[in-house]
Batch of 4 targets.
Target 1
Amino acid sequence: MAISQALYTGVTGLSVNSDGMSVIANNIANANAKGFKKDRAEFEDMLSLDLNSGTGSAQIGRGARLRGVRTVQSQGGLAVTDNLTDMAIQGSGFFVVSNAKSEVQESAGKFYTRNGSFIFDKDGYLSSSTGGHVQGFMANELGAISSRLQDIRIETNQIAPQQTTKLMMNVNLDARSKQLEGDFDPTKAELTSNFNNTITMFDSQGGSHQMTTFFKRLDDSEGITFEWHAVVDGQEVVDADGAKTKEIGKGTVKFDAKGVLLDRTIDMSEVNFAGGAAQAQVIDFDFGKTIKDGGTGLGAATAIAAKSVTNFHNQNGYEAGNIKSLRMELDGTIRGIYTNGVTRALGAVALATFENQDGLMKAGHNEFFSSIDSGPPKIGMAQSGTRGSIFASSLEESNVDLAAEFVQMIMTQRGFQANSRSITTTDSMYEEVINLKR
C-alpha cells in the first residue's frame, strides 16, 4: 500500500533536512575562521516507484537523499594585520604545507590551505599553525630563485662583503671647459683637472675607501675628449711608495660634436688595498653605452655646454651586513633588507592550483589534500599562470555570509517541519484505516 511508503518518504525528508542543518551549523560555527570555505548541501530525489495502471505507467517518488556536500571555493575578504608573515591570496591558488600535524595523513604529507597565518619557528622555517612547513622556492647567494620545491627557511646569517668590480658614472663634462697646460699631476689634482667627483668603493674585506675621479680636457679638433684619472689615499694602498695619493685608474672619454658619448678607453685600472685585502683589484669604469657600441646617448655621459655635474653614479660593492627587515612581493618573493643597504631575494612562497578544486578533500584545520577527483597539484610562483597574488600582512576571511546562512536555516527548518507534518498526517490516515473495522 502506498500509504506506508508515504511514511518512509517523510523520514527521508527529515533526514536530508537534518543533514542540511548540520552543514549550515558548521558554516556558522566557522564564520570567523581565517581562510574557511563554506559548504553547501546538495539533495536529489530517490528512485521512483513504478505503478502500472490501465492508462499507462505512473511513477511515485520515494523521497530525497543527500547527494553530496560541496565546498564553495569563492574568494573571501582580505583583512589587514600587523604581522608580515600573515599572507592572503587574492585569486586562485592554495598555500602548500608539508608534514602538518593533521588528523589525516594523505597525499604524501602535502596539504593545501588558504589560511596564511604563518610564523617563523625556532629553526627559521616558515610554519603554519599546525606545525607544517610552508613550501616554496629558495634563492642562492646571488638572489637567483631555484625551481626546486622545498621548505622555506630564512637564515639570518651575516651577508658576506663584496668588492667593487664595476663603477657606473653618468656625468656631464662642460664643453666650455678650457684646456689646461701641462699633464695631470696627482699631487696637484684639483689644479691640473677641470672637474672631479668622489665615490665610495669597497675592497674584498668590505672596507670602504674614497676614490676621486678627475677629468681633464684634451686637445681634440674633431670633437671633445677628456682624460680621467682615479685617485685614492696613498695610506690605504700598499704600493704608494710614501706618496700622499695613488693613481689606480686612467683612461679617456670621447664625445662627438653634439656632446654624445662616442668612445671610451681604460688604459689602467688596478688597486692594491692594504690591510690584507685581495690584491690586483680590477675595476671596470663604465660611462654608459657609446655610439660605437650601438648606444644613442641616453643614460650615458655627455659633454654639452652646461656646468659639469655628476648626474648618477653607482658601484656594485658593499660591506658585510645583517638582515634588519623582510619584504614580501605580490608574486610571493621574500626579500631581505640588510644593514648595508643591500636588498636580496631569499625565496618565494609557492601556490598550487588544481584542475578540479571541488575534488579536494578536507583534512581539518582549514586544510585540504588532493584526491583523484581533484587531480594532481600544479605548483608554481604567484602571479604565474592562473595563480593569484599574495598580499603580506593580510589574512583571508571566511566566505560565509551569515545573512544567507540564516535564510537557509529558516528554509531548512520549514522543510523539516513540513516533512514531520507529512508523517503525522500519514499516521492519521493509518488510524482511519484501522477504524474501518469498527
Target 2
Amino acid sequence: MTEQEHVSNNPDDLLENYPENLIIDRPDLKSMPFLLGEQLLTLIFWGFWFYLWLPLISILAWAFGFHILYSHIVALGGFEGFLKQLHVFFGGIFFASGILALWSLYNLKRYGAYNRRTEVFTTDHEALEKFFSLSSDQLRTMHQAKRLTVSFSEDGSITGVLVTTIPAHRDNKG
C-alpha cells in the first residue's frame, strides 16, 4: 500500500484509527490484593513526601509562633544530636531509594515487553484543509508559525487561531 493510498480523502476518516480515550483506566480488571498493594504504596510514599517537607513546615510554624523547632534544635542536642542521628537519615534515604528501584524493576519486568506504541498516521495538506475548513494560505501560515494557538469549538471545528510567524532572517547585531 503506497502512502497516497494510506491517506484518506474523507475528513471523517482522519481520526478513525484512534481510540476515543487514549488513557486505559480499568480498575475492575485488577485483583483486590493488587489494588490494596497499590494503595498502600501510595500512602507510604505520600507519607515519605510529607516527611521530607517537615523541616520547612517547622520553620514556617516557628515564624508563626509555634515552637516545634525548639525541641529539635535545643532539647535534642543541636548539631551534635543531628550528627548522632545522621545514620538514621541516610538509612531512610537508602531504604526509600531501594524501594523505588525495586518498584521500577518490577514495572520494567512486568510491562517492559509490551510495546503499546502504534503507528502515527500521516495525512496530506488537502485533507487537513478540508477537515479543518482552512484555505491553503492559512495552512501554509500555520506551518511556518513559530508559535501557534488554536481554539476549537465543541464539535471540533476551529474557532480561532493566533499565529506568531518566524522572521525571514535574524539580525544578530545590536
Target 3
Amino acid sequence: MKHKALPLEMKHKALLFLLALAPYAAAFSQSPVGYAATSSQPLPSSQPQPSDTQKVITRSTMVGAGPTKILDTYLSAEHFSGTGLSFISSVERHREGKHWSTLIEHEANISSVKDRAGKQQELEAAYNLYWGKLYNWQLLDGKLRLQAGGVANALLGVIYNTSNSNNPAQARAHLNIMPVGTASYHFQLFHKKMMARYELALPLCGIMFSPNYGQSYHELFNRGNYDHNVVPTTFIAAPEWRQMLTLDCQLSRTFTLRLGYLGNMQQQDVNQLKQHVYTHRLLIGFTKRFSIIPRSL
C-alpha cells in the first residue's frame, strides 16, 4: 500500500515545530531528574544556613543536704533550725555564635526543724522554678565566660507547725523578678578538664501572698474576707540572697561530676508578719553537655 507524500507546506510546519522543541530536548537530556529548573534563583544548598547554627545544651542534676533555719511569726515567735534536702535540675540552652542563652532551673526543698528547746517541730517544703535570659561574654580565649541577665522566680511552698491546733500551716507563694550574674572559668588539673562556676541572684520586685496580722485562713478562704493578701514586694520588703558555687570535673567523655554549694536566704516583712527561710546545701551531681545539629533541608 502506497503512502501519500505530505504537502510541502506541512513539511515546513513540522520542521519549524522540531526546531522550537530543540532547546527543551537538550535541557531534558542533561537534567538528572528529567526536567530543568526554569527559575533564575539558585537551588537550596544542602549546607546549614548561618541562622541554623547548632544548639548547645548543658543539663545538670544535683542533690544536696544541709542546715535549714526558719522563722515565721504567723505560726510562732520561736526560731527553728534543723536539716533539709534539696533536688536541683537545670538546663541552659544557647546557639553557637549567639550572645543570648536561656536558663531553666527547678529546685525542690524539704526540711524538718525544731525550736531551741526541742519541743516544737515544723516541716517545710517548697518548689522554685527559675526561667531567664542571660547575655554571654567570652574572655581569655574562651576560658572565662561571664553572663548577666534576669530570671523570673515562681515559688510555691508551705510551713507546717505540728504543735499548733489553730492555724497550723502557713502557705508560701511569690513571683519575683531577679537580676542574675554568673562567672565560669575553664582550666585543667591533674590532666582533667575542670570548670568553676559562681552564680548570684538578687530580687528586684514581685508579688507575694500573705495573710494579714491576726487573720485566719478560715476568714480568708471560707468567708472570703480579703485583707491585703496579695502584696507587691521589692528588695526592701522581701530581700533574698541566692548564690551557687560549683566545680565540674570531667571524668570521661560522657560523664562530668559536679560538686557544689547552694545558699538561699529568703526574708519577708509584710502585713506585720516576719518570715525567713535560710538554707545551706552541699551538692553532688552530674553534668552533661551536648549539641543538636539542625538537619539540612
Target 4
Amino acid sequence: MNRLLLLFFCLLTLLPLRADNRNPGDQRTPVTKSEGNWVKPDNDTPIPPNANVITLAEGITYYSADEGIFLNLKEPAGKVKLFSLTGEVVWQGNLVQGRFLIPTRQGIYFLRINNKSYKLIRK
C-alpha cells in the first residue's frame, strides 16, 4: 500500500512538466539545437547602419539583429559552439570563412571557437 501511494505521489509531481521539460505557464520560445546546421546569408547583403559591430578577436566580429547573432569570420574557424548562460549548448557546427546567422533569443551567450571562449550579448 505504501509503495502504491509513493508511486501515485511521484506521478502527480511529474505530471505538470511537458515533454520538453518546460512548465505549462512558460511562454518563452524554446531555442532549438542544431548540429552542423547554420544559415549563411548572402554576403552581398549590407550590414545595417545601426548595427553595433563588436570585434572579439582578430578576424572575428559579431553583431546582434532581430533574427539572432550574425558572426563574421575572416578565416575558417572550424569547430564553433554557442553556449547559454546556464552552460547548455545552444548551437554547434563547423564554420568556414564568411558571415553566418545563428538564430538566438535575447540574452548572454558564450561562443567557443577553436578552444577560445568569448562573451556575446544579444540585445
